[in-house]
Amino acid sequence: xxxxxTKSNLPPVSYKEAVFHCLPEDGGLYVPDQMTDIRQFIKYMxxxxxxxxxxxxxxxxxxxxxxxxxxxxxxxxxxxxFKPELIRLDENFSILNLYNGPTGIFKxxxxxxLSAMLEEFMKEGQQAMILCAARADTAVSMAHAFSGRKGxxxxxxxxxxxxxxxxxxxxxxxxxNIIPIQIKGTFDDCQRLIIETINDREFSRRHNVTSANTxxxxxxxxxxxxxxxxxxxIKNNLSGDLLYSVPCGNFGNLIAGLYAWKFGMxxxxxxxxxxxxxxxxxxxxxxxxxxxxxxSTNSQALDVSVPLNYERLASFYEEAPAVMRNMVFPxxxxxxxxxxxxxxxxxxxxxxxxxxxxxxxxxxxxxxxxRKWNCHAHTIVLATxxxxxxxxxxxxxxxxxxxxxxxxxxxKKKCEPVAIIEPQLEALxxxxxxxx
Length: 436
Ligand SMILES: *Cc1c(COP(=O)(O)O)cnc(C)c1O
Known about the structure:
Low-confidence stretches: none
Largest sheet: 6 strands, mixed
Bound molecules: pyridoxal-5'-phosphate
Helix content: 40-55%
Number of helices: 19
Mean pLDDT: 91
Structural class: alpha/beta
Strand content: 15-25%
Radius of gyration: 21 Å
């Protein structure tokens, strides 16, 4: 499978190139050029299939000619010492826990796989520099996954504010390979700086720069694994329609699900669950995309006004708008209903869900009721964040005490960055240079 740009007719590139260059020169995003059919794999796998074995057999099929089974197996083992966990709640709902990775968020899956794959791709003596703009939680996931990887330097840009939970012995000036840099600006400034650095072709060639944001195709692809895993776990126990409900921020997670469907996973629909930052919902319903100003909510991970994956989603709609309108169902949930849903899910099923997951749960209930899907649909709700990360939840009454894993407690420890700079390209490039 090769990758092409969403924007123009540049010739398609290999996966390796899409991962290392991250952004095509025309300003688009990389998407799969043809769809690989993986139905035969899905057919022969079932609830007994091990997650890493599934990854090791599907990856070479998707990346034929680029990764053999032996490499894929090495990558899977090096990336995943955690796996998705599907729990059936009742006839209508299952929950897919994606928060068992080192930092308690689903992004651990994409990031861990990408870091292991980059290390596998790197030849003896080669070096690459990965740039990433990250909010606190993603930053820790990145640092965790990349720490100690041979031939790789990770530069983490994050907006003003505290950074927590990083291990300073892994920082480049202390002999490690991680360079966290605080930007005096917003998250958007960090994203812009990365694109500017990549477009500084001289600097980026010299350091072999790429980015590991959610826009990197190398993070997107591994996210299809858990959709498939959930499907093969449940497929022999389903009588009606199957839906996935996905809490959406930058829409990387949802798009991975859409690829799983395109590659042959039978599914009847995806619920695009948003909080009140829902500009993208109108687009999904067929109206023009008009970004609304950002509002802070309880489900912070979903507070995005212009999703970075806009172009990728748009490419699905340009190809087959009518099909997509019967495949993706947007719903927007406010903070009140989000918290009510956390309580209701706890009362009914005795499980804690974080606020982002609660948005997906409530959105699923709303769509199922509106579309009268009730008795013949089963929804898999993606639990993207560990409930112990949710301070509203952990701060609540003692009778609801939540077990907080050590790894999540460690995320609260403050630390100092390697540099604090203005949001300017020259400042960034010289801060990086000063680490060597
Ligand atoms: C990033 C994140 C999301 C949103 O995922 P996207 O791929 O950006 O749509 C949802 N929940 C949690 C906990 C996250 O960290």
